[in-house]
Description:
Two copies of one chain form a homodimer. With 235 residues, chain A is mostly helical. Helix content of chain A is 66%, strand content 4%.
Amino acid sequence: MSGRTDEQATDGTGPARAPDERGPIVRQTLHDAVVSRVRDLIVDGTLASGTRIHESNLGRELGVSRTPLREALKYLASEGLIELSPGRGAVVRQFSAKDIRDSLIVLGELEGLAGRLACVHASESQIAEVAAMHARMVAMYEARDRLPYFKLNQEIHTAIVRISGNEALVDVHGIIQARLRRIRYLGHQGPENWAQAVTEHEQFVTLLRARDADGLARALAHHMDATWERVKNEV
Amino acid sequence: MSGRTDEQATDGTGPARAPDERGPIVRQTLHDAVVSRVRDLIVDGTLASGTRIHESNLGRELGVSRTPLREALKYLASEGLIELSPGRGAVVRQFSAKDIRDSLIVLGELEGLAGRLACVHASESQIAEVAAMHARMVAMYEARDRLPYFKLNQEIHTAIVRISGNEALVDVHGIIQARLRRIRYLGHQGPENWAQAVTEHEQFVTLLRARDADGLARALAHHMDATWERVKNEV
DNA sequence: AGCAAGAATGCTGTATGCAGAATACGGTTG
DNA sequence: CAACCGTATTCTGCATACAGCATTCTTGCT
Lengths: 235, 235
């Protein structure tokens, strides 16, 4: 499957691509690059919610003409990150508290399904990989290194979904996750319940190792509820 | 929420828009119209899976220049209905049997969630509306009028999701449903288990009326399994 | 005859130009 | 002083133009 061939947006710190990107010479087209770039600008807050996007301005800023930029905006509009009003241009989507709550509910359901499937389909090496990612995440937590922690956190969720082997699930999960990335990014700014989130992640690894499908599904769904509790006061 | 503001694609018989389009003067932009039009062309098979889309040709055929057409293609690529290879243009996405299976699994999960939420949030009038749609659908079934039956069938599913009140759910459901529309359209061509599908829909109304959340969730999830059984030999 | 290299053609990717709508501003009037 | 209307400017929407790459056909060589 894979409707979205571009990488999932990065955290906005480094370049868009993973370092081990090799593959059969994928010529990144300009509008694809712009999609990633603008997505990052939205996630890191440079383009704040509700901001109107002036095509000429942003285009000049990115060193790109209006054409590929407009194409990128259409793509992002389909993802739901921006809204287009005919004749009035593009606006960075505003997510209400209810939008976020709704998204987390759906995400919980999707990851729950992913967890059940992953427990069935995961190879031992895949489980080990997730465990390794988790270990690195814990290290970042102990070093209080927020950005890498945040990235690894997201990657673990994505990995579990990928292990499910269901491409449609990967796709829609990616869409919702992209919409929430900005919010979760903010949610991890505060110090409060950071430890709790790490503990919950700890369980994922344990349950995946035990291939406890229902347990993992419950844990992932619960994680979304807990995430809501952590972020709901900030939106 | 609502990332996708355009209408869900039509059945491919008539023009994309309803004739009574009035509303608060929404100036339909050209690329939006093209999105709907091309989506319909894919669903009704005019643009078969694997077909390469020549921008100039299709543009001339639709009476549109390449610019809005290309913008529409980017949008549809994000939806996952077509694939873009840099330098090589757009191709109508081919869905493998596994893709369809995966999509139905996700759709079952999403509609299951929608059913649970709908049983809680539905107003009596909304339930009556679904029941009325179902009655019309049964009438079309008895008249063996396939196209309206097919449309109403889809609308009922969409209605239940909408009643859930979860906009994120509406969005992702819409994406998966759009991808499957072509397949389901084919699935209802054969006469075999048409009656069975109608019976399953009958249950939806009964369970929704009874506000049996878990029952409706199970019925909707099961409906997707059954749908797979009905279509799996045709893909 | 088969293969390879080069040329030619067609298509995509991007930039620019132009027309029409939306917004902002200033002047006028109640 | 406020509200409204007309004008000017800016921005979007679409079309067209141009450059570069991909593909195919042709031609020369083995």
